[in-house]
Amino acid sequence: MHTVIDSPLGELTLVGDGEALTGVYFEGHRRRPAQETFGPRVETGFEETARQLGEYFAGERTRFELPLAPRGDEFHQRVWAQLAEIPYGETRSYGDLARALGDPALAQAVGAANGRNPLCVVVPCHRVVGADGALTGYAGGLDRKRFLLDLEEPAEARLF
């Protein structure tokens, strides 16, 4: 089942299995599954997810507390678990995540798994940057990635 909510980044499609959130997708999301795989559109069942996303976008929430069930192989699951551990307002490189997984040579594989994260925003793949701190690919587009990183920047670090 799925629903669509408005956000400061455009419409977000929320997908669930009745027990947990399985997907959060932007309009134009790269690697977005086919719409028919989302199940029927519903008007109820995603209130808590919508509430927490609203709090996040308002700057009132730094961590999501939702039942999650992303679908992916074991390696993807391990990478997504690492993403979930990146603190609000901080970034990590693909190499950092590869080292955390025990093999620095996995940086490219980490990047591929990061790009397949089905729970954008909630599992913060936007917090992963290049080794030099540069913004790199984001399934929702670099403008959305910049927006999310700016949103999480501490107020005292903002100049204007």
UniProtKB/TrEMBL annotation:
This is Methylated-DNA--protein-cysteine methyltransferase. It is an enzyme of class 2 (transferase). Keywords: Cytoplasm, DNA damage, DNA repair, Methyltransferase, Transferase. HAMAP family: OGT. The lineage of its organism: Bacteria, Bacillati, Actinomycetota, Actinomycetes, Pseudonocardiales. Involved in the cellular defense against the biological effects of O6-methylguanine (O6-MeG) and O4-methylthymine (O4-MeT) in DNA. Repairs the methylated nucleobase in DNA by stoichiometrically transferring the methyl group to a cysteine residue in the enzyme. This is a suicide reaction: the enzyme is irreversibly inactivated. Its EC number is 2.1.1.63. CDD domains: ATase. The keyword DNA damage applies. Its main location: cytoplasm.
